[in-house]
């Protein structure tokens, strides 16, 4: 195969490099994968409305998220077990994100510690994705470590009280290879060689809105709720003091048959009415998808699988190439839409 030139090329190349179980774990979704394919298709269906005769001799993709400057409105979504893609794992992903100037959000279920990932890209901003475990003591230590190692936000994932039914994993009999360690769960013991279902079994399914106050009291870090899918929950998120939300269906891996995130975004943006920042993820494969998300009112997008495919193809360098490619695509889409910066994208730029 010739050198990959778009995210889909990286996905094909990654498929040829990864074992079937690992590829299925990364690529797959829940049930019939309607949400998974729906996310991708919804971005593709939207149409851009370019304006012409605008001076685009200087275009910047820079923006801020929660006040932190980033080189583009695309962040690296938290994805578990990155050493399964490549030995560079999360430290490699962190260096790639830092090189391109964006934020990596580290998963609770990472295969490196929060400390290692911070040390891999010391000057770069980073966020920590939190799963609240049944063991609240361990959960507290996750937050303490995030504070200690300079993570700038806690991204609480709220769409996974139980694991979605991932049929690709059932078919391949996927288990996390014994030699790949998930340090956050080490204290609980017995997680080596677990299935994703067993790993996610550590998450507390009883978590409710009223628990957010306690979570907030654990640190001064901004709290981002990831996995909001309705205007009603967006309203509650604001009421309960979230600093931002991510419109997300977990990349189609949790409840199947939910609406595509691109389709949900306008109702959530309307409900939030500018009170907090709204991000979106799911199915972003092109820079033009990011510009469409901005047009629908998102401040930024998160990309999960796209940088993972880069990591699988060529470790840190591959993840960096994918992020650079997306940044270049965002810049080109902005320029051809007649926008000189993310802030100049308006509702009228997409239908
Ligand atoms: C392999 C994989 C592992 C994931 N692990 C996590 C995780 O540990 N925590 C989390 O909040 N979301 C997790 N997600 C969801 C992503 O953060 C994100 O919502 C999703 O990947 C976005 O869709 P995309 O892959 O189409 O970009 C995971 C997604 C994938 C593909």
What does it look like?
With 351 residues, this protein is α/β, with parallel strands linked by helices. It has 14 helices and ten strands. Helix 1 packs antiparallel against helix 14, helix 4 runs parallel beside helix 14 and helix 13 crosses helix 14. The model has no long low-confidence stretch (mean pLDDT 96). The structure holds flavin mononucleotide.
Offer a quick outline of the entry.
This protein is α/β, with parallel strands linked by helices and 351 residues long. Helices cover 42% and strands 11% of the residues.
Descriptive tags:
about 350 residues, alpha/beta, binds flavin mononucleotide, eight-stranded parallel sheet
The spatial strand order of the largest sheet comes to 3-10-9-8-7-6-5-4
Distance between the termini: 35 Å
Number of helices: 14
- Tell how many strands the DSSP assignment holds: 10
Global geometry? globular
The fraction of residues assigned to DSSP E strands is 5-15%
Bound molecules: flavin mononucleotide
Q: What class do helices, strands and sheet pairing give? A: alpha/beta
- Describe the largest sheet: 8 strands, parallel
Q: Could you report the average pLDDT, rounded to the nearest whole number?
A: 96
Poorly predicted sequence stretches spanning 5 or more consecutive residues = none
| Pattern of helices and strands | HHHEEEHEHEHEHHHHEHEHEHEH
**Integer-rounded radius of gyration:** 19 Å
Q: Helical percent range?
A: 40-55%
């Amino acid at each position: 195969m010739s050198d990959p030139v778009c995210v889909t090329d990286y996905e094909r190349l990654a498929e040829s490099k990864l074992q079937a179980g690992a590829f299925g774990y990364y690529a797959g979704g829940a049930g019939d994968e309607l949400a998974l394919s729906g996310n991708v298709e919804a971005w593709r269906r939207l149409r851009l409305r370019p304006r012409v005769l605008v001076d685009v001799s200087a275009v910047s993709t820079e923006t801020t998220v929660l006040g932190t400057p980033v080189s583009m409105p695309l962040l690296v979504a938290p994805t578990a077990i990155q050493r399964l893609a490549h030995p560079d794992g999360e430290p490699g992903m962190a260096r790639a994100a830092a090189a391109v100037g964006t934020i990596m959000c580290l998963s609770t279920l990472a295969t490196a510690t929060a400390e290692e990932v911070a040390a891999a890209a010391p000057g770069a901003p980073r966020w920590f994705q939190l799963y609240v475990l049944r063991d609240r003591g361990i959960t507290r230590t996750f937050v303490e470590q995030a504070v200690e190692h300079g993570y700038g936000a806690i991204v609480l994932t709220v769409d996974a009280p139980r694991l979605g039914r991932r049929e690709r994993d059932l078919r391949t009999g996927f288990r996390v290879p014994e030699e790949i360690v998930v340090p956050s769960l080490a204290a609980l013991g017995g997680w080596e060689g677990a299935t994703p279902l067993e790993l996610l079994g550590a998450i507390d399914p009883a978590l409710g809105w009223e628990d957010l106050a306690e979570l907030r009291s654990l640190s001064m870090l901004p709290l981002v709720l990831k996995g909001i899918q309705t205007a009603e929950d967006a309203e509650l998120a604001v009421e309960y003091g979230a600093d931002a939300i991510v419109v997300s269906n977990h990349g189609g891996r949790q409840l199947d048959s939910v609406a595509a995130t691109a389709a949900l975004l306008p109702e959530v943006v309307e409900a939030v009415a500018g009170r907090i920042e709204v991000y979106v993820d799911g199915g972003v494969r092109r820079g033009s998808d990011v510009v469409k998300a901005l047009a629908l009112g998102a401040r930024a997008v998160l990309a999960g699988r796209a940088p993972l495919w880069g990591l699988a193809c060529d470790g840190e360098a591959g993840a960096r190439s994918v992020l650079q490619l997306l940044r270049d695509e965002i810049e080109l889409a902005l320029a051809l839409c007649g926008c000189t910066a993310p802030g100049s994208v308006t509702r009228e730029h997409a239908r």
